[in-house]
Amino acid sequence: MALVSQSGALITALVDAATGLGIGFSSVISTGAGSDLDFGEILDFLTWDSATRTILLYIEGVHDARRFVSGLRAAARIKPIVVIKAGRHLSGSKAAMSHTGALAGNDAVFDAALRRCGVVRVRTYDGMLTAAGLLGAARLPQGGRLAILTNGGGPGVLAADYAADAGVELAGLAPATLEALNARLPPQWSHGNPVDILGDADAARLQAALASLLADDGSDAVLALFYPQLLLPARIAAQVIADTARASARPVLTAWLGGAEMQAGSAVVEAAGLPAFRSPESAVAAFGMLAEYRRVQRLLHEVPPPRTRDSAHDVDAAQRLAAAAAAAGRTVLTEPESKQLLACFGVAAPPVLIAKTMEDAHTAAQRLGYPLALKILSPDISHKSDVKGVRLGIRDEAGLAREYERLLAEVRAARPDARIEGVVVQPLIEKRFGRELMIGVATDPVFGRVLSFGAGGVAVELLRDNVIGLPPLNRLLAQEMIARTRISRVLGAYRQVPAADAAAIVDALTRVSDMVCALPWLVEMDINPLLVDDADCVALDARVVIDPARLQPDRHYRHLAIHPYPAHLETRAALADGTALRVRPIRPEDAALERDFVEHQISEQSRRTRFLGAVRTLTPEMLARLTQLDYERELALIALSEDTDQMIGVARYNPNPDGESCEFAVTVADAWQRRGAGTLLMERLMDAARDAGYRRMTGNVLPDNDAMLHLARSLGFEVPATAMASTVIEITRVLG
After folding, report:
1. CB 546 within 8 A of CB 322
2. Beta strands of 284-352 (E only): which ranges?
3. What sign results for the dihedral spanned by CA atoms 620, 621, 625, 628?
């Protein structure tokens, strides 16, 4: 593995510890203060280092979050990465800042960034090498359900207890599995998971039980716990476990409880490539880490657009709201302005009217109807409930007059310095089965804009039930955020309460993500409460903070840590003969299109000139590399036939190590060559590379690839005069 650390002392300790564990290092890199090279550049090197199978990072803080996230996501698509992040608490964060000079940022935000980057985070020094070694060697589970096999009840109970603490799900046993176990085990066996085969088990009983669990589709891995017994020596038990595990695709973990006797068993399974632990807890924790790695890898491969595809947003109207507030010298939108902003992005909110006098309030009531809610309108008051600035349940004119006067009097008493601009009047939204949620936007000093989701209402600070996510989101990522909250448990149906409208919650969260992507000036927002029931969800209140210095749109999304799918590059085009094409950036879901294109739409000769060698089929790794891009640094534009939706060509660039130039490749399906598709794709690719900040574009061409050399010359590339004597010709064009 490669070890990269911001602490030289930890490097020395880890290298010394690894020697005793039989772990070798391809690179050992101490970043120091990182004034020249930071994690991003180092990760770029390690990604393509053939000697590195796994990467281990010790991080205290980062200087360039965009480069860090980009490098981490690119590397994690190819190799397992384990991170230990110090400075989780305020005292540690201050110590980390003084040590490296790099910002640590909010730890929950850092955690969310690591999840989106597809890497596993460990919390302790002891777990660093174990986690990295396990990811580099062990089979990965397909899910998070664990079956436990033990030759004694106590170890199984300990493992089950720790699984509950660690959030690891115990697998349910299928009826066929229970039947098979009943046939092979004594009547006294546990009849559930953990499966206790009892202390008098022999090799045949152990083999039958393990084989039955491995055949059960309801589990994703098996943990075999073994303690010393006279009838079955550890060495023989280990051989049975190793032989049985070899015949299954499911991971098998083992734990050997004891001393010298158990060392013989652990040595056998380790020689067979199975992980061996010394306690039930450490084995369960290791499985949880493997399952978490599988989950975050799925998140890594989600590449959402800056806007959900089924949404048409009024960005221009949103811009006018911010410009008007900035012109008035304000950085906080009024509640009516905040509700208008939500409406621009399709987030439902009740209509509001402003009343500056009692007569205005009565007029508003006639228009909106009872029951009503009143809220103070003041640019100096952010949290209205703190100053008794909210009145609910007003059901008639007398109540309106009474509560209007009380509201103003109590707010003026609590905040005599505040400017009062009136009262907001809105319909009172009452939902019998409503749940109060909150969606928030904040700005982290390291990772820029972040989203939060969780329980809402006036007790939000006390409940502290919220999770952090990085924009952009798609529906899957939004669902994953929601599922990580405690309040998600009461969003489903229970007793007489119907399930909340899950699709509406996801829709609201993705629309807020769209808002954050589109509006660099949106630096802080609280939608609280977001009231949801079985029919819909509605934003009852919202507070928005803007940055007047960032009113201009930014299609490079510099306010985000993750570059979204560049939807602005989606265009339509026509070839010289009038054939209509669609040109757009490639997406991960285009893997089937890419495979069909390479394996069926281009000839063996075309594959040789594209890949500079013989390629017949794409391996999963190659396919992932071609379709799962980091749009911060690389791009692939594909051309699709408007009529058949078939991929007819692709042009892509990848960064060179100098960071200023990029290398291109272009391929057109054999049936579509000599019709101008290659020229069209290359011209648009060069425009995109220039816009991304690259100064030069290079390419490597085989000497007999006359068509590519002709295209390159027509596009202004320099072709060396002595090129024909070379094995590979390097061509260059200044992008300007």
Report:
1. yes
2. none
3. positive
Residues 6+ apart with CB under 8 A from 113: 65, 69, 447, 470, 561
DSSP 460-513: HHHH--EEEEPSP--HHHHHHHHHTSSGGGGSS-BTTBPPP-HHHHHHHHHHHH
Helix (H/G/I), strand (E/B), else coil: 212: helix
3-state secondary structure 172-202: CCCHHHHHHHHHHCCCCCCCCCCEECCCCCC
The residue behind tokens 């408007």 is 642
Core vs surface per residue 174-183: b (16+ CB within 10 A) or e: eeebbebbee
Per-residue confidence (pLDDT) for residue 613, from 0 to 100: 66
The single residue listed with the structure tokens 């393990």 is 210
Tokens of 474: 């798609």
* Alpha helix ranges (H) inside 569-662: 591-596, 604-611, 620-627
Residue 66 DSSP SS3: helix
On whether the CB atoms of residues 100 and 327 are closer than 8 A, the answer is no
C-alpha gyration radius of the chain: 30
**Encoded amino acid at 485, one letter:** T
Burial (Cβ within 10 Å: 0-12, 13-18, ≥19) of residue 399: middle
Residue 472, pLDDT score: 93
Taking residue 314's Cβ as centre, other Cβ atoms within 10 Å add up to: 14
Q: What is the dihedral of CA 522, 525, 530, 536, to 10 degrees?
A: 0
Q: Please enumerate in sequence order all residues whose Cβ is within 8 A of that of 390, keeping only pairs 6 or more positions apart, or say none.
A: 373, 374, 375, 376, 384
CA separation, residue 269 to residues 22, 197, 235, 253, 272 (Å): 15, 20, 9, 9, 5
Burial class (CB in 10 A: 0-12, 13-18, 19+), 186: exposed
Domains (range + CATH), the chain: 2-137 (3.40.50.261), 145-300 (3.40.50.261), 304-350+432-559 (3.30.470.20), 355-428 (3.30.1490.20), 567-734 (3.40.630.30)
Non-local CB neighbours of 490 within 8 Å, separated by 6+ positions: 435
pTM for the whole structure: 0.85
- For Cα atoms 190, 194, 198, give the angle at the middle one, nearest 5 degrees: 50
Q: How do residues 640-682 score in pLDDT, each as one tens digit? A: 998 888 999 999 999 887 889 999 999 999 999 999 999 999 9
- Taking 50 as the pLDDT cut, the residues of the chain under it are 91-93, 95-104
